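Tutorial sheet, problem 5. The two components below are modelled jointly, 714 residues in total.
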Amino acid sequence: MNAKDVNPATGPRILVIEDEPTIIEFLRTGLGYEGYQVAIAPDGRTGFDLAGHQSFDLIILDLMLPDMDGFDVCRKLRERGNETPIIMLTARQEVADRVTGLNLGADDYITKPFSFDELVARIRALLRRQGKHPEQTILSVGDLVLNAETHEVSRAGEPITLTPTEFALLELFMRHPRRVFTRETLLNRVWGYDYAGDANVVDVHISHLREKIRDKPPRLIQTIYGVGYALHPEDDA
Amino acid sequence: MKRWRNISLRVRLTLLYVGLLALLLAVLGGVLYWDFQNFLLESTATRLRAQAKPIIDEAAAAPLEHAQTLARNLTSRDTVALIIGPDGETVAVGKTLPEEPAPPPPDPAYDVRALAGENEVTYVAQMNGQRYLVLLIPWRSAPGSPDILGVIQLSTPLAPIENILLRQKLVLGLGMMLTLLAGLTGGLWLTSSALKPLNQMTETCERIAEGDLSQRVNLPEREDEIGRLAQAFDHMVARLEAAFAAQRRFVANAAHELRTPLTAIRGSLEVLMRGAQDDPAATSRLTQGMYREVVRLSRLSEQLLDLSRIGAGATIHKQQIDLQAFFDDLLYQAQLLARDRTVTLDAGDPVTILADPDALMEMLFNLMDNAVQHTAENGVITLGWRTTPESVQLWVADDGEGIPADDLPRIFEPFYRGDSSRSRRQGGSGLGLALVQALVEAHGGRITVESQPGQGARFTITLPLTMRDVDPLEKIG
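Model answer (structure tokens):
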């Protein structure tokens, strides 16, 4: 399981211009899991060159860089006519800094230390606004259809009523077909990072979900013994 | 007394001032008035006696029967004569015309004194609400003779004198009132003008207490006590403001330094929990990263703690250090730190100094570390010392990139990092040089730096050698 397995060459391309190795590492891994293709530039000059030579859907730009700072990179990119959306990472909370960044052509900023979930949400919002790589709102696997906007689920045209937890579980599976989720990961992503309950609660909800979507063997949501669960479209088998 | 202290200084000073002035005027006026009154009475008495003398002398030889004539001769518009016999009985009265004043009755207590031969008996008598000046003159058979025939009583009403005195009283009173009034206004004006800067300072203090440290008294130039107080006050507030600003900057910088490792750890944890934990390779990469960041955070917090401890003046335990042995030890460790760079020792005269060995090691090691960060792989770093009669200088010099002139004054500030420091090094806290400076200053020494961009840098620590004389532990030992 590796970032490249998910949406191999089709995911949006993100350029991360950042010099802190640990931050680079989690952005590369985390964004990869979210289906993005991530390129890294460890300093401003490299980032600026990379953005010139390749086309990206979005740039994450740290303000504090060793050679030229984020403001410079942003201004130069805009001067050169590069309109790639930019999210600035800033450790400063001063309003003046944010205003400067936005005036120079940044599209959004996020203050360190930030939540990764929030960063992902902002990336999605920005990409949606750009109209590129629109997020699928209607997901389907065989005759099972899920509408992420209206929260409606149906199988073979028959509507199914799900609890919010069951809906979140199903959406996660349908967005990442074939990916194996451990119980811990499902707990973290559906119940939240600070959920302190037993992992068995996942099994209980999965079994309810299977019942409601009339998931009979060969099942869509398969139990991977000793690991967790994964959704396999029927045509896989 | 308490109420007195609650009254404003201005009113108190004015009251005191006016009180003293009133006392002074009252005493002066009283003495003046009394003196003037005496002068008037005495001069009247002298005049009367002088006028009477030739008449009495002329009548001296005359017998008592002539008393009536004598009394009549001595009587005028303002003076009436009365002749008293040796037994105190009235022998003759000079008053015959109605416009002449009535004589007060003889007073035996005074008459006896005049009959006994006293020449200058003068007193004031009261009659019908009028005051009279009364003079008694012994009537001698011849001038200077001890033979006394009787007593001549001359009296004159005091009304004219009293009129003068009344006018005098009015003038004096009015003068005093005017003086007091002038004194009161002048006093109020004087104290207010003297105390106005104090009020100004109080207002400034109140604004400062509300949290605005940029306030100053800003008195116009004046060299008196209040001017000096205001200047000292402004100076103090300026120092406080600078100290608070430095403190705020320090805290802001410290928080800023915490953000990067915190961002890295938080992000890594979230990514792990969102699913990366299911991949052993990703888990290991993220965990290692988090470990690095935690180490960095601990180092940062340790250095912060060190800085504040040294600032509070603790943790310096001085002992005798042989510099030769110390540098031999340091050189070995420095070579490990410097890797491919050349480290040379420029030894000075053998000397023993009094310092905290751990602190000394930390100072030089931090400077070494700093030199290594800013020197090329094949660079040269020189350590050394020199002694002068009063001090010992220890230095760490390198032939690296040097320090830009703009950065030089600020490199000892906590968290300050030149651009080159930021790019070369990951995980540096920016506290190293600040820590060295704090340690050097805790030893009563100072640290200086010389550098030209491109030509390396030289950090020199100067420690006083006379420390041994002031160290209390040394004396006990």
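Marking note: Chain B touches chain A through 32 residues (CB under 8 Å). Full credit if you identified this.
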